# Entry
Amino acid sequence: MQHVPGRIFRDLSLPGVSPAERSALYLALIQTLAQLHSFNVNSLGLQGYGRGPRYCKRQVSTWKRQYQAAAHTDIPAMNELAEWLANNLPAGDNEEQLLHGDFRIDNVIFHPREARVMAVLDWELSTTGHPLADFAYAIGFCFWPKATTLGNLNNISNIAGIPSFEEFISIYSRCRDATISLDNLNFFLALSYFKIASICQGVYGRYLLGNAAAENSYEFASLVQPLAETGLRLAKKTSFTIGMQPGNMGELFQQSEKGKVVLQKVKDFMQKHVFPAEKEMAEYYARNKNSPDVWRKPPTIERLKERAREEGLWNLFLPAVSGLGQLDYALIAEETGKCYFAPEVFNCHAPDTGNMEVLHLYGTEEQKKQWLEPLLEGKVSSCFCMTEPDVASSDATNMECSLQRDGDSYVVHGKKWWSSGAGNPNCKFAIVMAKDKNTSASRYKQHSMIIVPMDTPGVKLIRPLSVFGYFDYFHGGHFEVHFNNVRVPASHLILGEGRGFEIAQGRLGPGRIHHCMRSIGAAETALRILCERSSQRTTFGKKLYRHEVVAHWIAECRIAIEQARLLTLKAASRIDTMGNKGARKEVAMIKVVAPRAVLKVIDCAMQVCGGAGFSDDFPLAQMFAYIRTLRVADGPDEVHLSAIAKLELLEQAKKLNAHL
# Structure
């Protein structure tokens, strides 16, 4: 506890955290327990750590002796429960998985900011035995008898954010193995209550002897009977329903109550203010197409931003500010994806979101004050400079833009391109990924990220790059930027030398969720256009939607959208519960799946719209150009597919090893 920084929650209700975070913390707890139970005892060199088979029989005998030694009066329910347990031991009783023995939420240390377990404490009861003993003990509070008030546990299951008993079962089963048997869960829940009742009896017994440590130890006597009666009731429950089988993730993706409220407010705001402004925005760019002002944000945007901020719809992407998890924000991102300028209205637009996440997570207090705060307030914008024109950036270690320490400064030299937002006159700084010039470190520890003000001598905007002929004026373009021996203070370095890839991983996970969900929002817009057009136009004597091929397109588009959304929400949920690292495979998968699915929908919509679909009469052509870039941006599909395959092979190897 002295060496692992983090949070310990003594109260199972987790006061002081949002419902979204409370849910994420409990999910992380159960995921950690499932991981512990997945270890192979022999592979860990822990043969003989326990006393071998018949763990359950020993547990019943041990706690029966402890209860009888401390009993002060006859409690029939305890006697009946002890007898039932002795007569209903699991068949074989020969499981020998690693057990903690006292696994509960106040015996773990959570990450200071993330819903991630950093350490598990108090291993004095650890042994080998049946893993359901740990699991039942950890979630036993779900059935805490309502007649008791000690411990304030009788209403804990009703607290917002705490998963239900069925959800706990589903999470544990999914993280362990789809075929895990729950046939004996009633035995282990009954055993847990027998154990807790015996402990309470022991506390009261020490009180009678005058050597109890707890001031309220005299109250524990009143717990024994209701706990035993609860154990008996659970013993007679012979089957438990898994609310969500692995693969059916519906209930896991329920928003927090706050998330639901904010999403509805965003939907209302979009309907009242954003969608009606689309025509005004189009007219602005039509007027200023050949004007230097085309890179400047239209007055409409500033007006909408001010209104959104007044309504509290601001910086929703950042959990520390909004109180929303990635799952909550993912659904909001989908809504904003239905209009190309909507994300900026809520100060939730790339690349500023990624840069704000970087500065929030890794910036110094000075960097936050100088650069993060103005971004959060929407007073300035920024760009991110990573990919380069002269190397294959699909392998990011190829980057050649150099970074060299020179006294109290760093000198940045090199070329970057596809720096989104660099053309915006309000873009005040770039976060630049550069290679340390003098280092012999491993290839993933040679790069650093540094803040470079755009007005620094040597920073030069070379040219805007078009995407299928579109210059993306609204987003400040995608520029080639050269850094010609640009000198910046050493205090502008983020986190430390050689930490660039570490920062990039922290930046990319949530950012990819945002991109994919905004894309799905665009797909919903495209599908709406497809349906409207197919119901308005007639060919060969009937409406387009009555042609079977068009009807099938509509059906397939709906299927593609739903599949992409579910996988993206799963990735968002895993980031909430396991952090970016724990969600690497899911994030890589959505980066492949979402753009492919959305392109399919847009393509079908363009086909139904005919010639108009390729013009500016519909937003489809511009949407196609943007979504197609996502199959390259943040790494091409081929890189992600290789990463997915590698992670899958490792997971399969671990499963095979665990069964040996």
